[in-house]
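User: Predict the full complex structure for these chains.
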Amino acid sequence: MCAALCSPAEREAFKKDEEAFMERFSLNEQEKHLIRSRDFKGLIEAGMNIYAMLKIGSASGNSLYRMGAQMRGETYEEFLKTRNISGAV
Amino acid sequence: MGRIVGGIGLSHVPSVGPVVDRKRENDPAWKPLFDAYVPVREWLAKLKPDVAIVVYNDHVAEFTFDKYPTFALGAADSYAIADEGFGTRPLPAVAGDAEFSTHLCEELINQEFDLTVCQQMGVEHGFLVPMNLCFPHTSSGWPVKSVPLQVNVVQHPLPTARRCYRLGQALRNAISTYPQDLKVVVLGTGGMSHQLQGKRFGFMNEKFDQWFLDELEKNPENLASLSHHKIMEEAGAEAVELIMWLTMRGALSPKARRVHRHYYAPMTTGMGLITFED
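Assistant: Here is the predicted structure of the two-chain assembly.
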């Protein structure tokens, strides 16, 4: 599913009807739930590859650093405060 | 004769791409990185390489998990810019050198590196960011031809650090038997310390990175003994990309002279830079 998101038309299809998109790739209910709820921590724990997950991030408006903050259990703003030069985004 | 004139170890952080595309190189947060490449570009302009062999990893854009090569070499005269999920960057296609690539494939396979040979492949940030930093393009193209050499550092089991080092040594032999006069630079890309997944997201270790740069210069054999586990534990899961720097180092003479060295770690990755003259 994530490999398909390397195409503008498929990203649009995901944005337009996420449920149908997930169904097309035969995701199980647990996987669908994790994606629906934007549970990036849960997706990694379920075995998802980070680079594949970045494509879901791109299609759903979640940057790497936003996903990272969630995985650390922090807000985006809290995460930025932990960085050496937080302007380099 | 083919001849290696230089080697570069450098990070391929994806956020550099949009900085180049939006011409933000002078932003205070990015200037220290780009300033470090000013002398490197001057050095490269003097070396005048014909071809850059870029040792890099794809990030699930061109190679996906249904089948994943351990080592894949480009053997085309042109490489498309791949869409890795964020849209296709506005860059000219990358010029290749199919004849030289074909020679490398034959020579590497004769040395028992059984590569996947790619007559068509797209390239993404793992390849493009190092090119952006070292060889700025114009609207008409890039100043050197390239050979992409993709290494699996994503889907376990990964090749060992020593296997990557030996690949570099085999690459040196292969380049030296090319019948035409050709000046080659080898780029080993990725790392340095970073982890992008789980609770440890954002982990960096400058001490490890500086040690790695020291050892790469003076004692690369020692780095070839590093296990994936050790690299991941000390420098973060994605730091395992550093094994690709060993391919570059293996391609250079053990006595290669270090020319530049820089380190900048603003956000989530230790961005290292080291150059060698063969």
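Chain A touches chain B through 35 residues (CB under 8 Å).
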